[in-house]
Amino acid sequence: MKKPPFHKSVLFTFRGIIWILRNERNFQFHILGLIINLFLIVFFELSNIETAMIILCCFFVLVTEALNTCVEKICDYIQPEFDSRIGIIKDLAGGAVMLATISSVCVGILVYWPYLKLLFH
Ligand SMILES: Nc1ncnc2c1ncn2[C@@H]1O[C@H](COP(=O)(O)OP(=O)(O)OP(=O)(O)O)[C@@H](O)[C@H]1O
Asked: For the chain, which has fewer Cβ within 10 Å, the N-terminal or C-terminal residue?
């Protein structure tokens, strides 16, 4: 197959992002998390390094969610019927999102905790 020109390849990547934004509820939920965190970054006036850590964590979860959706789509394409091997593949992809989410929540607690303490004292 002929390779598309660079600008078209970039457009295709945005097509993927727009598709997942429109169709995947979990991805939309994580986008809401990103928006809330952007608000908190401004509200608490986080340092550059704290902001970088929070944004990295948000995108870490978004990336794993996109890859999880990708795995689910491939699985549904190659095996639409019940298959225990497909089940474990999907569980693993879902598990990756869960791990990313747990680590991101830990980072969030560590970063926001001192600011929350100041706010409520
Ligand atoms: N074809 C299948 N064969 C066996 N088990 C399956 C199959 N499809 C889904 N499952 C099981 O159901 C779970 C949910 O799969 P599904 O494709 O419905 O994802 P989902 O509910 O959209 O998940 P997510 O919330 O991660 O997007 C899988 O983790 C797996 O355990």
From this structure: N
pLDDT tens profile 58-89: 999 999 999 999 999 999 999 999 999 999 99
Phi, psi of 45, rounded to the nearest 5 degrees: 50, 55
- Ligand 1 pocket check: which of 84, 90, 99, 101 to mutate, most ligand atoms within 8 Å of Cβ? 90
Architecture of domain 25-119: Orthogonal Bundle (1.10)
This model of the complex carries an ipTM of 0.91
pLDDT digits (tens, 9 = 90+) for 89-108: 999 999 999 999 999 999 99
Q: How far apart are CA 75 and CA 61, in angstroms?
A: 21
Active site residue 45: no
| Distances 28 to 45, 61, 109 between C-alpha atoms, Å | 25, 12, 22
Distance 21 CA to ligand 1 centre (A): 19
